[in-house]
Amino acid sequence: MNDDQLLRYSRHILLDEIGIEGQQRALAASALVIGAGGLGSPAALYLASAGIGRIVLVDDDEVDLTNLQRQVLHTTARVGQAKAESGRTALLAINPGIDVVALRERADDARLAELVGQASVVLDCSDNFATRHAVNRACVAHTVPLVSGAVIRFDGQISVFDARRADSPCYSCLFPQDQHFEDVACSTMGVFAPLVGVVGAMQAAEALKLVMRVGQSLAGRLLLLDGRAMEWTSIGVARNADCPVCGCAG
User: Fold this and answer.
1) Which residues pair with 153 in a beta bridge?
2) For position 187, what pLDDT does the model report?
3) Burial class (CB in 10 A: 0-12, 13-18, 19+), 134
4) Burial of 104 per CB tally in 10 Å (0-12, 13-18, 19+)
5) Segment (H or E) for 114
6) What three-state secondary structure class fits 109?
7) What is the pLDDT of residue 186?
8) How far, rounded to the nearest angstrom, does the alpha carbon of residue 203 sit from its chain's CA centroid?
C-alpha cells in the first residue's frame, strides 16, 4: 500500500483482526453488487469507503424521485440518470482510488455466470425472487460466497450463503426455487427508509469479513429484523441434501 492508502485505511489497520494483510485482501478483492437501490446504496458506499479494490454495480433502472427517500447513492440532481452510473459517481467521490464498473443491465443466467466468476464476493441487493435465484445458482456454480439481504415495510432479513463450505446452505435451500413466492414491491407496500441502511450496511460488513477473512460469517444463520420493535431473531438454516441447486440432486 502507498502512503495515502495507509492513512486512508489506518483505522482498519489498527484492528488486530484486520491489519495490513486484511486490508490488502480487501484492495485485491472484487465485489459484485446486484442492485443499486435501497440495499445496494449503503452496501456499495461502505465497500467503497472500506477499500474493496473493484466494485461492479449492476442495475438496469433509472433514478426516480421516489427513490431518494432511501437510496442514498443518488441525488436530486441525478434523477433520470442510470442508477449504475449515478452509483459509480457517488462511489468514486468517496474513494477515487478504487475501480468501479457500472453496468446498466438486467443480467440473465449467462451474464451472471460471467460476472460471478470474476468476483470475490457477491451482494444480492435485488428486489425479486427470480433475480435472487439466478444469482444464487451462479454463486453455487462458481463457489463464490453470496451475501443476501431484503427489506420491505418494517421488516428486514440478511444471511450468507457460502458455497465454499460443505455445510453451508444456498438460497434455494431456504426458499426453494420450485416453489412460488410472491414478490412484494416497496412501490405498493412501502419501506421504512433507515432499515435498508441497517441491512445494507450489514451486507457490506459480512462481505468485508469474508474477503478479509475476519470472524465468523452468517452462513447457516438467517437474521430477521422487526423494525417496529427493533428486535433481531436468529434462525438456523441447514443445507438441504435434496436441493436441486447445491445438494446431491444438483
Assistant:
1) 191
2) 57
3) buried
4) middle
5) helix 109-117
6) helix
7) 59
8) 5
| Residue pair 210/162 in contact by the 8 Å Cβ criterion | yes
Distance CA 212, CA 60 (A): 30
Spatial CB neighbours of 192, under 8 Å, sequence gap ≥ 6: 153, 154, 227
Query: Which residues contact residue 236 at a Cβ distance below 8 angstroms, ignoring those fewer than 6 apart?
Result: 220, 221, 222
Cβ atoms of residues 72 and 41 within 8 Å: yes
The burial of 238, by beta-carbon neighbours within 10 Å (0-12 exposed, 13-18 middle, 19 or more buried), is given as: exposed
Which among 139, 173, 186, 243 is annotated as catalytic?
186
What is the dihedral angle through the alpha carbons of 119, 125, 129, 132, rounded to the nearest 10 degrees? 10
What's the 3-state SS for 187-241? HHHCECHHHHHHHHHHHHHHHHHHHHCCCCCCECEEEEEECCCCEEEEEECCCCC
The grid cell for 204 is: 457490506
Q: Which residues of the chain have pLDDT under 50?
A: 249-250
Determine contact, residues 92/57, Cβ cutoff 8 Å.
no
Nearest-angstrom CA–CA distance, 46 and 50: 6
Annotation marks residue 243 as catalytic: no
Question: At 43, is the secondary structure helix, strand, or coil?
Answer: helix
How far is 23 from 70, CA to CA, in rounded Å? 29
pLDDT value at residue 247:
85
